[in-house]
Amino acid sequence: MAIPIFFIHKGLHPYLLFTIMQAKFSNPNSEIILIGDDENKVLGKYITHYNYNELINNNILELRKIYKHKSNNKKDYELFCIERWFLLNEYSKKFKLKNLFYIDSDVMLYENITQIFDKLSSVDVLCFDYEKISSGHYCYINNLTKLDNLNNYILDLYNDNNKFNELCESYLTTENSAYVKSISDMVLLHSFLRNNDITYANITNYFEGKIFTNTFNFNKVKNIVNSEKTNLISFTNNKFLVKFKDNNEILTASAIHFHGEAKHLISSYATVKLPIRLKFINLSFLLNKLYKKIKKYL
Q: How far apart are CA 66 and CA 108, in angstroms?
């Protein structure tokens, strides 16, 4: 059975049109689910749209009460990043899912993930795992009891001041300062994976010449899209190729995470054509952007 693919997003941004439809195009047999809001429910004509307010449960309400903000990001933003694990858990229970694949709304997905992940039956969680943090911008959860465990682990940390202080002391150190600047959803996931009975793997360990790329940013000076370890070099046969900087190895990108200012390039890296209705919505975004630029000079 095809693995369901999840996005969680508030509002309607132009790049979301492309990432959603790209995932559907690359995974025609998977259900594409957007846990969103009234602003982006227009996408419900093409994929499954579910309002996140309908998934607010007692655990989320408790998290909002006990959350301790230790981040340079805005509180609402950081809290919502953590809440997504609770939203996914509530949805998966409500609809009795067996597994799921979550990606951030600025990720372009080019491969059929069911064909890739079906071979990984022994893995509970597959995510982007750094030495000091674990990012869920790509996250395959094969054992959904572990998602429930993660929810309980987070609540336990915030409920117990001693445990939370130990977490801060462990991660917010001078030694870790280059990687960890706040207690975020990535720190919580990293701590959970290493302190629980769970089998996890790093999604960047590529599969048969393919790779889920490191986070790509836009280099204004060089006018290129690249990451810490790879450069995006070419587009061949509807596939994007990346080259490793250290050994010049070339691999096919299964997915690319367009971070920060690189988001504005997402439409240029789509291999799918938008439906007419979404084309008009995208055009309205472009015209509004153009109007704002012209207005500055009037």
A: 35
User: Is this model's pTM higher than 0.90 or not?
Assistant: yes
| Rounded CA separation 259/252 (Å) | 19
239-272 residue pLDDT tens:
888 877 777 888 888 999 998 888 888 998 899 9
Which of the 8 DSSP states describes residue 13?
Answer: -
Closest CA to 146 of 165, 163, 127, 133: 127
Give the H or E element holding residue 46: none
Return the ∠ at Cα 114 (arms to 56 and 267), rounded to 5°.
Answer: 75
DSSP strands (E only) in the chain: 5-8, 32-36, 48-51, 100-103, 107-109, 125-129, 134-141, 200-202, 210-219, 224-226, 230-236, 239-244, 250-258
pLDDT, one tens digit per residue, over 30-50 is 999 999 999 999 999 999 999
